[in-house]
Specification:
four-stranded mixed beta sheet; about 450 residues; 14 strands; alpha/beta; 13 helices
């Protein structure tokens, strides 16, 4: 008997054009898949499967198959593999001595991960029905392109950690995810921001990310119709061997960072700095100690560093950007204190400070007058006085939209190169904390 969600997809599909891109089934025959009493093939059969399978974080543990892409027997839903279930059960057993309960929670955890894919799938159906465009398959294709963040995976992580928090298994789930992937972009965001990113890419594509996020659609994760909530089939498959958890990671090299961001056209200079001959877009990274890991001297294009945890503007910015720069983030810069030039990186290499760019410089900052964040105001913005591009302040709250910041308004309105006059204007506007080159604790240096 057809379920309600299957009937819903049938109605949506009638509204969709057939000539648009549709991700088809793989051409090569797949190995047979057994149930719990049967025998599945070896692990490589799952790892090397079609794109619908590879989009799951680790298909040796579980995978989600959309009802858009049923198998030969008409099956779709969440599939839990016995080997992966055994590994998760062992991981949980360290915190839960009762084996039966540990296995039950392991099943719940894997189903929670699969349910996150299902919720996104249903949300995509509703969008496709309204837009009359096939966006789900297009999203899955774009998510695999170099440098792109798979925001669906970030959403799976957030759903899993919410489940873990309710069951006292935060450390265990974190260990599992650290083994499943080294792509932790977006993990430090709040759920609403993750969902806004998912919506933006689904509805408008990856190219729209810097034009404003779809926070108007950010509540989709909590809007699954109750009639659909329990209609995703859940099945268990036999698999061998059981995967091994090994979450140890080695430190990335500069080249590995660049490739992670989809950068392919770069070169290294004799002084250990890097030149990039294309635009750079970095989204959602959580760098160690908030420090940018690659000493980039020159970017021939735009430089976008969005929604990361970088804390030092000068350390993160390349010496030269030949396009525009965008450092919009949910974490605003609270100071532009300039300590010294050149800037020294942890590996001992050095670079000159950012001198400007011909385009716009978009920054998420704090006010320097009345406090917008309790106890914090922007400091030492005088250090930006010599930076040439047009400064645009963006909101730290949600969509990265333009906003008015008093000290930026003063900076843009001041035509004079007379620094004392500029300082006077800042002070008169109530921006005393901004009217210096260094934070007050550093002024003795």
């Amino acid at each position: 008997m057809e379920s309600r969600v299957e009937a819903y997809w049938r109605c949506v599909e009638r509204r969709l054009p057939t000539e648009e891109f549709v991700e088809g089934e793989e051409l090569e025959p797949r190995p047979s898949q057994g149930d719990e009493s049967g025998i599945a093939g070896d692990e490589s059969e799952w790892l090397g499967g079609p794109t619908w399978l590879r989009r799951t974080l680790r298909p040796e543990y579980y995978f989600y198959r959309s009802l858009r892409q049923r198998d030969a027997e008409g099956r779709w839903g969440i599939f839990i593999l016995s080997g992966g279930l055994s590994t998760v059960t062992e991981c949980f057993s360290g915190a839960i001595p009762e084996r039966e309960r540990a296995e039950r929670l392991a099943i719940e955890f894997l189903n929670t991960c699969g349910d996150a894919h299902y919720r996104f799938d249903v949300y995509a159906m509703s969008c496709e029905g309204l837009l009359r465009r096939r966006r789900y398959a297009q999203y899955q294709r774009e998510a695999t392109l170099p440098g792109h963040v798979n925001f669906e995976h970030a959403y799976v992580y957030h759903r899993a950690h919410a489940w873990a928090a309710g069951n006292g298994l935060e450390a265990e789930v974190e260990r599992i995810f650290r083994d499943w992937t080294d792509d932790d972009r977006g993990w430090h965001w709040g759920r609403r921001r993750v969902c806004a990113y998912v919506s933006t890419v689904l509805l408008d594509g990856y190219g729209a990310l810097t034009q404003g996020l779809r926070f108007d659609q950010a509540e989709w994760a909590d809007c699954l119709p109750t009639e659909f909530a329990d209609e995703c089939p859940k099945m268990r498959l036999a698999s061998t061997p059981a995967p091994v958890l090994n979450p140890a990671r080695t430190k990335r090299t500069s080249e590995q960072w660049l490739r992670r961001w989809g950068v392919s056209n770069y070169s290294r200079f004799d002084d250990e700095t890097w030149g990039v001959l294309e635009s750079v877009r970095i989204i959602g990274e959580r760098f160690e100690d908030g420090l940018f890991p690659v000493n980039i001297r020159d970017v021939v294009g735009d430089f976008e560093l969005i929604d990361t945890n970088v804390r030092d503007f000068w350390q993160a910015m390349p010496s030269v950007v030949r396009g525009s720069a965008n450092l919009s983030s949910e974490k605003p810069f609270d100071t532009f204190s300039l300590q010294k030039d050149p800037i020294t990186f942890p590996d001992g290499s050095e670079k000159g400070i950012f001198s400007g760019c011909p385009g716009e410089l978009r920054l998420t900052v704090l006010e320097a007058g009345p406090e917008r964040v309790p106890g914090k105001t922007s400091g030492a913005v005088l250090a930006l006085y010599e930076v040439e591009p047009r400064l645009i302040a963006t909101s730290p709250l949600e969509e990265h939209a333009d906003t008015r910041i008093n000290w930026i308004e003063v900076l843009r309105a001041c035509d004079s190169k007379d620094i004392p006059e500029f300082i006077d204007r800042l002070i008169c506007t109530g921006c005393k904390s901004a009217a210096r080159m260094r934070d007050i604790d550093d002024e003795s240096q």
